[in-house]
Amino acid sequence: MTEEPIMDISDLQSLRVKDLTKLAQDLDVSDYSGLRKHDLILKILETQAEKRGNLYARGVLEIMPDGYGFLRSP
């Protein structure tokens, strides 16, 4: 079993919708047809997280006074 490469959201954002659609097909992503680019990227990442069990993110963590945190894009 070959391990699939870790996907970076910035790499996915640089792809065209046509390329993202092909990637979704190759990764057996379900219900990707007709999605907007942003939603297609999230669907691809969600599918990869389900398969691998992990989802990595980069950004700035903003912790609010009430204890909630938000990961902001760099």
UniProtKB/TrEMBL annotation:
Q: Name one Pfam family in it.
A: Rho_N
Q: Name one GO molecular function term.
A: ATP-dependent activity, acting on RNA
Q: Which Gene Ontology BP terms does the record give?
A: DNA-templated transcription termination
List, alphabetically, the InterPro entries matched: NA-bd_OB-fold, Rho-like_N, Rho_N_sf, Rho_RNA-bd, Term_rho
Q: Where in this chain does the record put each Rho RNA-BD domain?
A: 54-74
- What PANTHER family does the record tag this protein with? TRANSCRIPTION TERMINATION FACTOR RHO
Q: This protein is called what?
A: Rho RNA-BD domain-containing protein
- Classification of source organism: unclassified sequences, metagenomes, ecological metagenomes
